[in-house]
Amino acid sequence: MNEQYERISGWAPIVGHWTFEEPGTATYTGPQPQRPIPFGICVSQVRFTEGEVGVTVRLPRAESGVAPEASGRILLGYRSPTDEYLVAGLGGYGFAYTITHFDPARGWRGIALAGSHDNLNPEHRYKLTVRVRGQRLMLEVDGIRVLEHLLEAPLTYGQLGLFAWGNCPVEFSEAVVTKERGTIFVVMQFSGPYEELYTDVIRPVADQFGLRVYHAGEVFGPGIVLEDIVRGIVDAKIVIAEITPPNPNVFYELGYAHALRKPTILLAEKGKQLPFDVSGYRCLFYENSIGGKRKVEEGLRKHLQAILHE
């Protein structure tokens, strides 16, 4: 876990019965009688989309091993019990490690599963870490990566919380979070004047928001360029695409970003006739002049503020 973390100590119970007897400890004690499904949710004041979340979980004992239905997980992207969210951690569906998506229309669906629930130890205090980088979600247990999953869409901007399942107590403690601003991946034709747009406009504006900005030409080391581009788009919080020249590579990369439902900002020189497939998308048009650069800077700031919920 990153040393620059924030300890989470305040919790609000939403579903199920919870106790908070010791500072920093939250214990799910069982379901509410009026709810037919045995689960619990409590949430923190922290809003989160990217970074690391950690918590220690202890599962309840049954006659032999951990109670078979018991689960203790980290909740991401919470807005209400009837909105979609993600949970990642211990237990569920007979597996030891799970990432689950909740859809109000279909209920809970396991999207990444590994290990046997029978291998979990009720005496052990499991240290869970969830890392979110763009649309890549990774689950570590006791410092070992056990699951990695590519989300179909960016994580919903919502609260962090705890999720428990079953009729027996599940204990959570030592919850911490490290929030990151994330990255911007730029797809464009890298030749003048577009290289100057990147260095003189896009990079300085990104720096103002604390976002790391880069393009495939700035990735070094062995490997396939297309794989670097795909990883850059997946791991980015935002994609910026300059689409003035009819560059097939740029439109291929833009299409992949749209398929991931990635927040994407389109840039084009004023007077450019956009291809039909992207003509319906909002585009930030600019003039290649000193005054034009100032206007595109203002436009970029407004788009980034909207995306980052500022």
Q: What is the mean pLDDT? A: 91
- Outline, from the CA principal axes? elongated
Portion in strands: 35-45%
**Rg:** 22 Å
Oligomerization category of the chains in this entry: single chain
Give the proportion of residues in helices: 10-25%
Discrete helix count: 4
Largest sheet: 8 strands, antiparallel
Succession of helices and strands? EEEEEEEEEEEEEEEEHEHEHEEH
Which blocks of ≥5 consecutive residues have pLDDT under 50? none
- N-end to C-end Cα span: 27 Å
Number of strands: 20
Can you lay out the helices and strands and say which pair or pack?
Blueprint: E1 6-7, E2 12-15, E3 17-19, E4 25-30, E5 39-48, E6 51-58, E7 71-78, E8 85-90, E9 95-103, E10 107-116, E11 126-133, E12 136-141, E13 144-150, E14 158-165, E15 170-179, E16 183-187, H1 194-208, E17 212-214, H2 225-235, E18 238-242, H3 248-259, E19 264-269, E20 283-286, H4 290-307
Parallel strand pairs: 16-17, 16-18, 18-19, 19-20
Antiparallel strand pairs: 1-15, 2-5, 3-4, 4-15, 5-14, 6-11, 6-15, 7-8, 7-14, 8-9, 9-10, 11-12, 12-13
Helix pairs in contact: 1-4
Kindly describe this structure:
With 310 residues, the protein is an alpha+beta fold. 18% of the residues lie in helices and 41% in strands. The chain is built from 4 helices and 20 strands. It has helices at 194-208, 225-235, 248-259, 290-307; strands at residues 6-7, 12-15, 17-19, 25-30, 39-48, 51-58, 71-78, 85-90, 95-103, 107-116, 126-133, 136-141, 144-150, 158-165, 170-179, 183-187, 212-214, 238-242, 264-269, 283-286. The strands form 3 sheets. Strands 1, 3, 4, 6, 11, 12, 13 and 15 form an 8-stranded antiparallel β-sheet that branches. Strand 12 and strand 13 form a beta hairpin. Helix 1 (194-208) crosses helix 4 (290-307). The longest helix is centred in the last third of the chain and has 18 residues, at 290-307. The radius of gyration is 22 Å and the shape is elongated. The model has no long low-confidence stretch (mean pLDDT 91).
